[in-house]
Fold these 3 entries.
Entry 1:
Amino acid sequence: MKKLMIMLIAVLVIVLALSLVSAKLTGSTTKAGAKTLTIYNWGDYIDPALIAKFEKQYGYRVVYQTFDSNEAMLTKIQQGGTSFDLVVPSDYMISKMRDEHLLLPINSKKVPNLKNIDSRFLNLSFDPANHYSVPYFWGTVGIVYNPKMLGGSKITSWNDLWNKKYRNQILLVDSAREIVGMGLNSLHYSVNDTNKKHLKQTLQKLKKLTPNIKAIVGDENKLLLPRREAAIGVLWSGDAVEIMDENPELTYVIPKEGSNVWFDNMAIPKGATNKKGAEQFINFMLDPKNAAKNAEYVGYATPNREAIRYLPKKIKNDKRFYPDKKLTDRLEVYDNFSKPVNARFNELFLEFKMNH
Amino acid sequence: MTKKWTNTYLIPYVLWIGLFVVAPLAMVLYYSFFDIQGHFSFENYLRFFTPIYLKMAISSIGYAFFITFFTLLVAYPTAYLLTRMKNRRLWLMLIILPTWINILLKAYAFIGLLGTYGPVDTLLAMSGAGRRQILFTGSSFVFVSVYLFIPFMILPIYNSLEKLNSSFVEAAYDLGASAWATFRRVIFPLTLEGVKSGCQAVFIPALSLFMLTRLIAGNRVITLGTAIEEHFLVTQDWGMGSTIAVFLILAMVVVMALMGKGWLKRW
Amino acid sequence: MVKKRIGSTLFLLCVFVVLYLPIFYLMFYSFNKAGNMTHFTGFTFDWYKEVFSDKRLIAIVVDTVIVALLSSLLSTVLGVFGALAIYLTKGRHYKNMLLSLNNILMVSPDVIIGASFLILFTLLGIKLGFISVLLAHIAFSVPIVVLMVLPKLQEMSPTLIDAARDLGAKRLDVLLKVVIPFITPGIFAGFFMALTYSLDDFAVTFFVTGNGFSTLSVEIYSRARQGISMSVNALSTLIFLITLAIVLVYYFSTRGMGKVKQLSGGEDA
């Protein structure tokens, strides 16, 4: 009994001491009475120096919270209970949230720097006229591979992956839309094709890829590919940048049959308590110098035409990550599927995974 | 008198059960009757009995069984040897300590350790066994799961072993029982409660393991937990996710009923 | 006999080596100049410097520890009550029902628990943040405490209680002086398991956290999209070493106390 009491008191004392430390830590970074701006973003997806700069310049206290998937973020916003002033969902999620009335329109007058965005990336199908969103970073889905491990052979298309000599060499990303999209593309259908017959054909085609697949993985492909666990990976261009940073042997290609182009976008969710601050923040992030700094830190491609000027030559001239208009015309943005269609895609992918 | 006893302790506990068990349970049951478009139907239950989900259920149960078995196989002797150690409380804490490191990080470390050109692979190659695929196989999945669950099995077994009255063991020896017979007839039955709670603490969560199936097994193993995860977070088909959860809960009740009836006690 | 000794020592050694292998692997690469877990190119302390300059990260660590300690403490209390309640329930059916209900949270996948707690908290009007995370952690730690304490209670011979009561002890006295001391090892085990669950949890916390409050695992998971930086490894190394030090200091200081007590004829530790 005595031992339990000692334990109890010890725990309480430690908790008290730590609360003081915590209060001091969070207190020291902010000025009392400053209005807060709550940002909900992917982890490590912004240069922290920019947040500090913004706080200093505009006098807000920025609270930064993170999520690890669009859907998890959506659940959080739908339920309410906590208010965010700014979120960074991907394209299809923008239209979904708009349709569910979860986004507030952005006042473009308050965001004059919108003019810096390349017109290629404005007025896209998921948000016509950019009423609700401003692109943050963009990229493609493609193939990263290690020519050295493949005896110098070159991969240029989705259909190359079905080559028998790549047995047990491919890591696929664990995402239904991307992999089913790859199957559809390889048959020269659109990534947004929902025709039942075409989907059935796609499943048959994907099943034939099974002997070549080593594993279906998530973010850990960034650990696996540089260490030569496999020679080929199907993934997002943002991941490819990081992989090639770690192991320059690898290269990235956007398959010639076509592929998906994705956008992560800044948007203001319903229930935001500091809309003015959110718009100021969007405008701040669209400033060419800030956008360039952020792009260098994160490593993804910026849609900001003016910012590209400030980027090192090596980055801005890399066609693999800054493809020209001729190439981007071949790429498609995902349509926002209805729930049943989405479910069909996922069931198809599940069946494919069960057989692999 | 006894009745009063029970009542006082029950109040906070039942309150907790009501709020955090029954309420979520009722919600899961409720959602399981709605199809993806939000209409009331039994479709999800029919879907569960299609080959895809049945196959998944069988393989989940199989893997959970293997994981529990191997965890017990390692944990029991470890717990037993720990009770004979000098600073045994310290060693026990050192067993628990690794669980405090984030599971995702440990999984990443295992990817590094078990991967091609990793230390284990190199060791195998040098020992003449030759390079072979270790990562992304069912056995590496079982291995890493056992690794994660071992502390949860050791603790209850250790607890029951520690209170084991050593005079029973000595008496058995005095009566001329062999070491094996002593273990089988005296030690093991007396620590059965610990083994049972250990098995429950492993088997049940093993059924719903999800992250390791991707990280370590590269989706070659797909458990019911993985499917639930996907239905809730990717497909947003909460109905089907809930239906699978209902079956998981049923599986748990069955396991507990089996344990309760003392099917282990036969010997 | 000697052979047997060596065999069992070897076995234990193997268990410990395997348990600590991935942790040493993480620690090793936290000093890697290349900043990844692929190739070790040189020794550096940069990642540690990065940890200490990231105030947000340190605040998150502190908050994580506060939630873990508080929630384990409260769930241990609740769990002991629960174990007593189950132990004292007479009917076999009621007992089994309570136990099944107890275990449901352990079988339920984290996402479901998280999502349903989120709905529950919003229904009750509890603001998401520290309190909601604390409540959720208490909620999912209770079952494991019950599972740790219950076997201890079942080992207790009923005659012990009867004897105490025959001697005229009051209800509370029986509880405090007889029952609790007997089940103390179970209580400690429950507390440590609760701590483990709390520190490890990601999915449930993710759903119920909000308003700027975050825990370490939520932060680590959401950073995975950009690839895990070695500063996370450095942080884990620090946490591991600090915990190890606390365990060692705690153990040897209490052992010292126990010895003194034993010499003076007090109760043993």
Entry 2:
Amino acid sequence: MAVALARKSLLHDWRRFLPAIMSVGFSGVLIIVQGALLLGIVGSNALPVTQSRADLWIGFPGTQSADLGRSIDAGVSAELLVDPRIRRIEPLLMGAGDWRGSRGGGVSVTLIGIDARPDALGLARSVPPAVRALLEEPATILVDDGDLDKLATAIGEAAEINGHRVRVVGTMQGMRAMGGVNIVASLATARTLDRSLAAPDSVTYYLAGLWASDQARAVRARLSKPDTRSRFEIWTAADLAGRSVRYWLLESGAGIGFVFATAIALLVGTLITSQTLMAAVAASTPQYATLRAIGVAFPKLRLIVVEQAGWVGAIGLALGLTGSLLAAGLARLNGIPFALGPGIMALSGALVLAVALLAGVLALRRLRHADPAALLR
Amino acid sequence: MPPSLSVSALSKSYVVQGIRTQALSDVSLSVDPGALSLISGPSGCGKSTLLSLMSGLSRPDRGAVHALGIGLGTLDDAARDAFRLAHCGFVFQGFNLFPALDACEQVQLVLDYQGVPDGEARRRAREALELVGLGRRSHLRPAELSGGEKQRVAIARAIVKQPRLLFADEPTSALDSVNGAVVTTLLRDIAHRSGAIVVCVSHDPRLIARADRVIEMEDGRLLRDSRDPCSPRRLETSR
């Protein structure tokens, strides 16, 4: 192999390159962690969708986010069941309540009414059949493990929601919300707790399970006719979840905050990295000038600097990803919503590599000082 | 055909902070192959400028440089780069070695840029280091070498591609007397053995005494040209 000048210089002078590597790494961690936190927090608005096993969701036309559902006519279910590809249909209710714990304190809560049968689709990922069965008893509720402290309650204790007495019969996982608290009850209990849900001829959503999940788009296309669109809208679960996340990213200002903070992380990363690379080029100016003297063309010298920038980016990115995985572990231990997905990792990876390469391109200006004639003065 | 290098009516001036300095005025010269030619003179006499123009590192304001039958003044930057890559070796006062590379890699690097296959490049790099007496120290980095050894690595780097033109700028001024003598002898031997044109700029009397030809300069002009360095006139002027 030919002499790997860029790599050997990087290894030999690692102290010189360390600030650049660290700054790229920190930029990566910053982008990934705040992105994952933001997606985790915003994604909690889509929890009713992502924690359920429904293939299709049927709700009020134009609903922007799963937590903003409005009631639709219960008669819609008959129209849906006409399609033989639909295996089952069940309602899901969403309302609001004012929680008063037995030890005092008031908290606004989101009330989710689900089908309590063991094979139901609603919140099937968070509420296993054994826990779900507990809801068959009237005036019983479930809360998330992580919300017990916030609600100042425990399993078996009583509380009031909207003035109605309820009892906490169990806990669930993965239903911790961003602002308020998710309280899960049976459909019947939910209708008694929130008066706006009381009318039996209205539901917030219908959840449809298909015989074959891959038919979801086809079934939706068939059922979405111009004359039904004024009464209800159908989404696949992924559509409604994505729509909820996008809505809150754009509407809450959190998305803009993320873009702004990311831009700052990238700017600082670029500045530190380019300064470090410039210093490295400056330190090697006589050597580069000697290569120019023996006839090595400028583009070949540029390649050395760009390759070093690439290595700085790659090592920094590896550090950043490691740091982010550690952060994800910490978040998990503490029950903090942290959506570390491949999307955010790929995005931040591309951004920090771009930072390193941009810094390398900025540092190339210093190569102009590598004038071989200057060695002879 | 032996290599050739000649300059005719060369002039070059620099503008530094608005003040124009005439570095070379109407210099004409032809350099012999197979000999160590030394350009000597006081600081600022234009000797390094002359070396820079002869080697194609910079362009003259007026006049012409012909090297190996090619008019360097007519070549664009890329063509002069290619000419130097193919034919020129350089040794500088500051050895300019890469701190991260061992001696063998410093020398091999030149051949890498010439597109020489890796195995052959490494073999030739070792041979060049043997030639300068550093065969056993080819694995050492600059920090582990003495000043004289570093300059010998730089010479090996300059000669590894067997250049027909070898330029050295003050190659001994950073060295003690023993190492200075070693480097001087090396440069002269290379000229005699390879038949290359070896042009050296220096005001080091040790080097002047060993050169085959001494060209003395002053104020941007040639002052004296002595082909026999041992002539009485030569010794007189060098004192």
Entry 3:
Amino acid sequence: MLSVRELKVAVEGKEILKGLDLEVLPGELHAVMGPNGSGKSTLAHVLAGRDGYEVTSGGVFYQGEDLLPLEPEERAHKGLFLAFQYPVELPGVNNTYFLKAAINAGRVARGEPELDAVAFMKLVREKAKLVQLDETLLKRPVNAGFSGGEKKRNEILQMALLEPRLAILDETDSGLDIDALRVVADGVNALRGPDRAMIVVTHYQRLLEYIEPDYVHVLAGGRIVRSGDKSLALELERKGYGWVLEEEAA
Amino acid sequence: MNTVGEPLDRFRELARNPAAPPTGIHWLDQRRDEAAARLDRLSWPSRKDEGWRYTSLEPLRDPQFAPAAQPLSALLPEDIESLLLANGRVPDLVFANGRFAPALSNPRALPDGVWMGSLARALREKPEALKDHLARAGDPVDSLFAALNTALIEDGAALLVAEGTVIEAPIEVLYLSLEVEQPVIAQPRNLIVLQAGAQATLIERYASFGPSLYFNNLVTEVVLGQGAVLVHERLQEESRNAFHLAGLSARLDAHSRYHCVTAALGSAWSRTSLQLRFAGEGAESRLDGLYFAGDGKLVDHHLDVEHAVPGCSSEETFRGILDGRGVAVFDGRVLVAQDAQQTSAHLHNANLMLSRNAEVDTKPQLEIYADDVQCSHGTTVGQLEPEAMFYLRSRGISEPEARKMLCVGFAQEILERFSHAPLRERAERIIRQRLSRPSG
């Protein structure tokens, strides 16, 4: 599904990722953990195609194809999805209009017919229920004035509607209280399936109590310094990141 | 007309045009003559004139505009179908090159106490009802062009609403302009008078077919009696080669309310001057404006709001989108006189620049001589946020579509002030079309 090889990425001349390797197969859920500034968000943004990141060496292959030359919208059409750490507020852009435009852009790109208004509304209501998103938020501008929890639910709603093959969740747990966290995790779990892979980027182990990873990786200093199963996350929680970093340095 | 020479000379000659003989109404002929005399005294504005500092009149120099000769009687109702709003309703009054076109109009049934029709007919049937209002105080705005309009007052829309009369449904007026054999100058003169306690909603649209070259030089006078309420929604969607110069003056008596939403989305060169006078205490006005300056186009707005009496409030919010080498001018002036205590006035202008080559000259000004007031003004000039573009594109939305969505989103604050949904939808659609056009 996704193969990241020896990836080096610089931002404004400063190297952030320093040779990162990651293999993700269909159906797997990988947690990428690490201290602040370790390059977690950079990895998420590079995968989604954001400007301002310079890949200095290495490569990323997605479903056998070189991902890096693709525009962000092309990546989305091929089933890649990024749930933002800070979902962007779009004043004046109606949420329903946005969701419909997103779905239909993907359908058109794949040669499928557009959903009409009735079919779309039926679908969006069903998915909104899944993430317990208040339906009135569908009529409001995208994320504008939404609470932290509402923004994250809106992200998961988009994921549910777009049905990606590879979903990257960037710090989806940040700023959520325990109830919102549970709702978001339920939404994510409902979307897990044998054909869909997920990368959950998180600083804390907390989210992983609700979303069980197949693999846990520790990202530090721009590289994956340790990989393991879910028990690694618990160990990190107990001992802190200092422990891995010290061992790495030793 | 084959006259060459300075444009002002040509306009002066127009004002003396034998095709516009005296109306036979003494007070009106007098006011027209006075305006023609003013035109003789005025000089052609240069960039040294404060009001024209950022707006070049150069493009108006060359075209030889001839007065619209006869009504465009060849136009059939089906010809204007593409100009109708999505509800399919034929406008109450349609003007073609400034003259009333009864065959294209569909005046709705109105309550007793309302007189709606062409100004030409009002002048024939009830000139006395117009005398106190039409061109009474000389030229309302932009004196040179308003003088030209006044000197040739002949036709336009007239809406006279008697005391306490409420019109529920919006009245729609369409001004259609077309180049016929040679560029024309159309000069609608509109008069809206709401007596005390009257209420109405007026929709005005300025439109054309194809790339016609013409000059629409219009003046609208609005008079609101005590407690009257006028909702005034305007959409300028002129041809991409057109010149559009609109002068709008409103006089608000005590406790009246005036809400004007105006969108300037078409034409090559346009200027809209809005002049507001508070004549009685406790009146309220809101002016909301939206403009789009495409590549090579100029869109100018001048506001002149005068709080002469206490306890009135005014709010002016204008938003503009500039593309390519588009130029926008916003000159908003709000004056609060010494006696105008307890005034509330808020003036704001925001601009979204889609190109490095676009230019905006924005000058919101508050002049305050009273001490107990609540006033603010501000201006912003910004670009599309890369964050927002990436967010949309990461959802599969193409770059051009993402750009459109964000621009329409920016315009939404003004678009949603349109109370008439079909008008709002049309304005939104035009913005989308303008953004699709590479040349703006």
